[in-house]
Structures are given as C-alpha cells and as structure tokens.
Amino acid sequence: MDDLTILEQESFKILKQLEYCCDSAKLRNLEVRQEIIKHKQNHYEDDVGALNLALLKQKKFLVIPYSEIDFSVLKKHKDIHDVANFLQENGVPFHLSLDFIFDDPTRLEVSENPDDIYSELGIINGESIEEIKTSIQKLIKKLSPVKITEKQKMTQPISINIGEINQLELLEDKEERKKITVYINIQYGNPKSYNRRKSWGKMYELAKEQETSYNKGFFDYFNSNKTNPLYSKEGFKVTKILKQENGTIVPNIKIDLITQGKVTRRLKSA
What we know:
Layout: H1 6-24, E1 27-29, H2 30-44, H3 49-56, E2 60-65, H4 79-89, E3 94-96, H5 98-102, H6 106-110, E4 120-125, H7 129-143, H8 150-155, E5 167-171, E6 179-184, E7 192-195, H9 199-209, E8 212-213, H10 216-223, H11 229-232, E9 242-245, E10 248-251, E11 254-258, H12 260-269
Parallel strand pairs: 5-11
Antiparallel strand pairs: 1-2, 2-4, 3-4, 5-6, 6-7, 8-10, 9-10
Helix pairs in contact: 1-4, 1-7
C-alpha cells in the first residue's frame, strides 16, 4: 500500500466495500432512476443535465446505500468525490447521488448522524451484478499490493510439495450429497470435492463426532496411502492425520465440520 497515492489507497478501501455490496444488492431498472432524476432536475435545473444524460444511457444500475460504506477509511468525507472520479476514470461506472454532488460536503463533517442526511450514496451502472462486480475486482487487482495477503493464501491454488496437512474442514451437509466439500489448511477459496462413499463418508462422521470405530483400511488410507488424492493429486506430504485411542480412531490434526456461512465470513474478513 505504501507505493500507492493517498487517493489510490482510499479508492482501494472503498472498492473493497463496494465489492461486498454486490453480494447482497439487487439490480434496479431504469424507470425508478428516471423518476429520481426528474425530481432532482426540478431542484437543480440545468446543472444536472450532463450527468443525467450519462445515467439515462444505462438501462440498469446498482444502488449503494450510504449506511453500507465506512467513511473512516477516508481522511475527509468530501474525499469521496475524488474517489468517485477516480473509479469512473478507471473503468468502474460509479456515480454519487445528486444530493452528494450539489450539497455542501462539510455538512457530513459536522453531522452526528450522517445517515439521517442521506440514504443513497450513489449508483454503479451495469447490465448485471456480475458485470459490475467484475469491473470492481479488476480495479482492486490493479491497485492490490504485490505482497501476498492472508486472503490470497486462502484462495491461491495449492502447489506441489507444500508440506503436511495440518487442518481439514468438511462443509456441513445435512442432505448427505454424493460429494463432500473439503477445505485443506484454511484454503477457503480453494475447496476440494470427494465422493462420500467409503472413506470420505467415514471421515465426515469423524469430523462430526470426533471419533469413529476402528477400521484398518480407513486408518491406513489417510495415514500412509500415497494414492490418496490428498497426496497424489493435491501435492501434500503423507501426513499422520489419524490416531488410535481406546479402540477407536480420533483426529491427530484438527478435523471439523464448517458451515457455508462461516466460510463466507472468513473469506470476507481476510
């Protein structure tokens, strides 16, 4: 981040928040926006002409609520104007609401409850959520620091000869689907899928109950069998994943179930 200008740093932090907005937002149609623009034109008259023409050329847009953005990442609230211009110049069609554009920006600095002043920060034009999110992610990638972040560690494909397995998390599945989703060593962005039958079904039982009945084939398959895809395909060193205890098999590393909600939260917080 040290190599970025202050504007680029602020834009990067706002972009990350806009990316998260895409996950829960809904695309709105042009008709709604037209009514808003007509109302604003009555108040601001000719000053909004050029901006409105640009907005009206787009058929769909994503509304960004004011309450969804953390302005503490900016040195001053009014910096959002420069950020908006920077995003537009770099491929993200983000437009501030007309209230923001023509209001006194210092009103945000002195207000104890800015949410009472504005409900809508702005909009991002696009034909689909995917299109909008892609434009955001492209600019995030352009501005991202070179060093590998914790999230990148979670999402990068596993390389060959990367050491032993120290943690297995199996996605909770109450419907007992044919495939079991497995996250290895907190790589939440790089899930693996294995057939439930035979060994992985028993592994799911172990993750859930933290013990399972002793079975030599199962024990050896995970502890010493080089043809196990964890070793032959994913590239990990053969690891003593399991151990015997009082006539049962128990985890020798961390082996747990994890919900989809937890996976999503951990990816977002990284």
